[in-house]
Amino acid sequence: MNLDILLQQVAFIHEIDKLKYIQRKTRLFNSDRRENDAEHSWHLAVMAITLAEHSNEPIDILKVLKMLLIHDLVEIDSGDVFLYDTIVNHDNTEAERKAAERIFGLLPAKQAKEFVAIWEEFETGDTAEAMFAHSMDRFEPILQNVSNQGGTWTEHNVPYDTVMDKTSKIQHGSKTIWDFTETLIDDSVLKGYIKKPDQE
Amino acid sequence: MNLDILLQQVAFIHEIDKLKYIQRKTRLFNSDRRENDAEHSWHLAVMAITLAEHSNEPIDILKVLKMLLIHDLVEIDSGDVFLYDTIVNHDNTEAERKAAERIFGLLPAKQAKEFVAIWEEFETGDTAEAMFAHSMDRFEPILQNVSNQGGTWTEHNVPYDTVMDKTSKIQHGSKTIWDFTETLIDDSVLKGYIKKPDQE
Ligand SMILES: [Ca+2]
Prior knowledge:
- The structure is a homodimer of 200-residue chains.
- Chain A is built from eleven helices and two strands, in the order αββαααααααααα.
- By secondary structure, chain A is mainly alpha-helical.
- Chain A has one domain (3-199): Orthogonal Bundle (Hypothetical protein af1432).
- The first copy, chain A, has a two-stranded antiparallel ribbon.
- The longest helix of chain A is centred in the last third of the chain and has 20 residues, at 128-147.
- The interface between A and B is large, with 46 and 46 residues.
- The structure holds calcium ion.
- Chains A, B: InterPro entries: HD_domain, YfbR/HDDC2.
- Chains A, B: This is Metal dependent phosphohydrolase.
- Chains A, B: Keywords: Hydrolase, Metal-binding.
- Chains A, B: Residues 16-178 form the HD domain.
- Chains A, B: It comes from Pedobacter cryoconitis.
């Protein structure tokens, strides 16, 4: 056996434990307790296997799972960026790229390259797999907010247009899930969780 | 779109959030904070994609991931069973079977059947995929205990023979990982984290 390969992999497995300490803004379903990135990544992965049939295009679900399981690891170094934050840049920042190099760089070189490529494909977001993975990443906090009387929408007073702008990307992965999401958003407007401009 | 299908899937996605409240006995790496089942399931899934090359037999890694992502969901109803508990039965209990029927039963019938079959294959444990998945499930707490000065071994005074009995199943999934694990256990005996009978 190549012990060196295994030791590098174990160092990676040890390091990524830190994802369990990265707190998100969103809260668990019907709860006051915030979700961490490891729980979030697990939930998205189960959502993907559950909802795969609703993808607009045929997808390699194994690749989608790999993306969702590792997509937030860079936040170990760069921290969680709140979806509705209007100041911090959400694009593939220099800090995130450095984090990817450091964290995936713990793995054996060939594997590190594979993991970085999967992370980059998710970040770039233009393959069928990346688009479906992004749908999951946007859909989960909507379900959470709906279960928490508006959750982060209410807490941070996020305007309707911003909600639509950030969540409508769901349709690129799944028109079915987006149609359903629109009914949830409409209902959240009716309940006062999201304010339209003319309501302010 | 078949809204009824999607609504059933969303009910399942909502329900499984409860996995984030199921506390395990083991603690995070170098930490006093206990791990929950959702974090655990995420970690095992990433371990599986990282360590797949060490499987004794060729495996369908997508099936392994599905197993690991859903294997603990029954604990939402039946609770976590401590690996080294000598009183509570670890086998596929009646309570776990009922839990599987209730929780997977939230899904559309055809999908519920698929998920139950994956869970049963993991529980039965005799396919190459189930054996590799079990290796991951046994290997993670060993790494955690080693990082926590013996962790649950020390805390619950688990004897050497019990540790060997419970962990040696790793070899059915991966001889490579088991060889490495044996060096970790030997080292843990030297450090006094695990007591051999003649040392008591
Ligand atoms: Ca994120």
